[in-house]
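User: quick one - fold this with zinc ion bound?
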Amino acid sequence: MDPSVRSRRPLPAALVLVLSAVLALLVAPAGAAHAYDTSASACALQGTTGYTDEGQQTDHTRFQDPLGTKHIGLIYVDFPDAAGTALPLTSYYDTLKGAEDWMRNASYGRTALDIQVPYANWVRMPKASTDYAWERGFSWTTHQVYVEDALTAAANAGVDLSQYDMFYVVPTATATAIGHSPTFIQDPAAPTWVWNPRTGSWVLIHWAVTFGQDMWTWGYKVADHETSHTFGLPDLYAFSGDLNRYVGGWDVMGDISGPAPLYFGWEAWKFGWITDSQVSCLDTANTYTTTLTGLEYGGTGYRLAVIRTSATTAYVAESRKAAYNDSNACATGVVIYKVDTSATTGNGPIQLVTNPDAAAPTGSCTALDMQTWQPGQWFQDDSAQVRIYVSASDASTDTVWTYKW
Ligand SMILES: [Zn+2]
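Assistant: Sure. Structure tokens for the protein plus zinc ion:
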């Protein structure tokens, strides 16, 4: 926690009454535009990293629009040194197919992953699995070669590459050299063209998730995590030091196996899953009261209370409940976090604000998994001159007062 940031005891009851009378006169601003690209909200901070970040604007020369149905061609690959396992390949498909329902729930039905298997057999890669230099941090160009090889082999086996927005490339379990599951994102300066015999034309490859053996450990949510990179999201886990120190298990981009893996509402806004009209934006000295609907539920209510603190930073409060994708959440209530759209992937673009009065962790929950705020608790950052006070809570909502002075 920032040393300038500390929590305070609840307001005296008399002051609460005065404030609630004042707050009743205030109306949070509303707009109807999608948050991404065209948001009219003063809180829709733009990214400055030039790549995946928490900026609300998405560069569509690199990343795909999250809205709508994404047709995904799942391609099974094996290698001269690692022959494919026996058919059928249902255990592979079954390990990943849950990504569809999970994404549908996370997006309130606005994003559909349509995973298709156009060729239910192995396609043979031209090089040995050990010749693809498959290690973390390998170059984009090395990755591009693997994607080109896989999709060329698929096209030569009869797959019509032109039918898909993106690809999932799944290696045989015998290819132990293919360990982790990176995402291939197009570079407009180095387009990836693959010859497609079915149409007698070149097909431009935009995005692919190239799975590794860690898919068997993570399960289908690794597909949701990786696909989200093609929508422009950064990693929320730390690339160095304690992996889970920024957000614990609160977002699938932070911990694929976390207890509350639903995307932070800030990201749902970036994706256009929630709109400006569901965001209470405080960017000047003022006070708003906002009843936030649990992020897990659909509907039109408010989802985010944002206090802008600079052109690239904001505090965000949202309501999280143990339902749907978050049914295993360790704690419920208001989650407060700091967004920094100038922070690069893996370097803390979102960081939870910790609550000194949060409940102690139990079972497999970590301390960060417990960082929710309950009625009567408040957070204040003196240097940013902001305060977030939780005033009420019920089964599906939390009400917060946001202050800026
Ligand atoms: Zn990632």
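One thing worth noting: The chain has a mean pLDDT of 92.
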